[in-house]
């Protein structure tokens, strides 16, 4: 009799689990859909950094970020981020499998494991998740990346990314960064300044766009060269050339 009595309980548990999963899927998709039209008021990475400052009693810490719409930012900024971080962004659907394969090959050869995250993946992680390398976080990152790619146009992904990306310690987004580093509106940044902002993205708390090291200057120069080779702003404005970058 005991197995018979347990069966209805198991069915109820499975039904409850299915309802929770469906509710999670529906709520997460509705949130992503909402953020297609509404500027994010914060991000998970910003909240994590602010909490860390409180825990470690960083009295001088100040989080700076304000939203700047796409039309009020020079197109050189998103182009620089694409040139430096994810040159296949206009073509892929959230994941650059060639870069992932190359990173795995490099790790198998004993070389340092390189990042292969696309701008879509970084947007998903910065907006919804926490820093770390666990399988759970990577799985959630992939899930939100798929939702973003299915729900947002490419321009919206870039718009959100350039507004929430960490560009310095406590400095998030192109609006705060252009003011802090160049004392200029985002619409007035030059290609060289845009390239310097993109050059600090690998390590924004260690590298500085306003006081660039030799490494930042070299990387910014390379990014600026790539910006012109990709064809300039038309590359991210819906008029990309038919040939994909290698």
Explain what the structure shows.
There is one protein chain. By secondary structure, the protein is an all-alpha fold. It has one domain: Biosynthetic peptidoglycan transglycosylase-like (Penicillin binding protein transpeptidase fold, Orthogonal Bundle). It contains ten helices and two strands. The protein has helices spanning 2-35, 44-55, 76-85, 97-108, 119-128, 135-151, 154-164, 173-182, 191-199, 214-229, and strands spanning 166-168, 171-172. The protein has a two-stranded antiparallel ribbon. A hairpin with a 2-residue loop joins strand 1 and strand 2 (171-172). Helix 3 packs across helix 10. The longest helix has 34 residues, at 2-35. The relative contact order is 0.15.
Topology:
Layout: H1 2-35, H2 44-55, H3 76-85, H4 97-108, H5 119-128, H6 135-151, H7 154-164, E1 166-168, E2 171-172, H8 173-182, H9 191-199, H10 214-229
Antiparallel strand pairs: 1-2
What attributes characterize this protein structure?
246 residues, mainly alpha, Penicillin binding protein transpeptidase fold, two-stranded antiparallel sheet
Looking at the overall shape, the CATH architecture is Orthogonal Bundle
- The total domain count is 1
Radius of gyration: 21 Å
Main sheet: strand order: 1-2
Q: Considering the protein shown, what is the CATH homologous superfamily?
A: Biosynthetic peptidoglycan transglycosylase-like
Low-pLDDT sequence parts: 239-243
């Amino acid at each position: 009799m005991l197995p018979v009595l347990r069966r209805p309980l198991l069915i109820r548990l499975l039904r409850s689990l299915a309802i929770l999963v469906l509710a999670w899927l529906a709520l997460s998709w509705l949130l992503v859909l909402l953020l297609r039209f509404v500027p994010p008021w914060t991000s998970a990475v910003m909240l994590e950094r602010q909490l860390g400052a409180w825990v470690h009693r960083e009295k001088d810490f100040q989080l700076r970020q304000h939203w700047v719409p796409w039309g009020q930012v020079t197109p050189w900024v998103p182009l620089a981020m694409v040139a430096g971080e994810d040159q296949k962004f206009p073509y892929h659907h959230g994941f650059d499998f060639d870069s992932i394969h190359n990173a795995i090959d490099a790790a198998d050869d004993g070389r340092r494991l390189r990042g292969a995250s696309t701008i879509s993946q970084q947007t998903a992680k910065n907006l919804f998740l926490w820093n770390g390398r666990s399988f759970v976080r990577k799985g959630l990152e992939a899930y939100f990346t798929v939702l973003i790619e299915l729900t947002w146009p490419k321009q919206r992904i870039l718009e959100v990314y350039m507004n929430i990306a960490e560009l310095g310690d406590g400095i998030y987004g192109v609006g705060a960064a252009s003011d802090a580093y160049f004392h200029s509106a985002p619409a007035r940044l030059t290609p060289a300044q845009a390239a310097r902002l993109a050059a600090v993205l690998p390590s924004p708390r260690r590298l500085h766009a306003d006081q660039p090291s030799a490494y930042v200057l070299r990387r910014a120069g390379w990014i600026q060269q790539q910006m012109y080779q990709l064809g300039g702003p038309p590359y991210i404005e819906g008029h990309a050339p038919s040939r994909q970058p290698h």
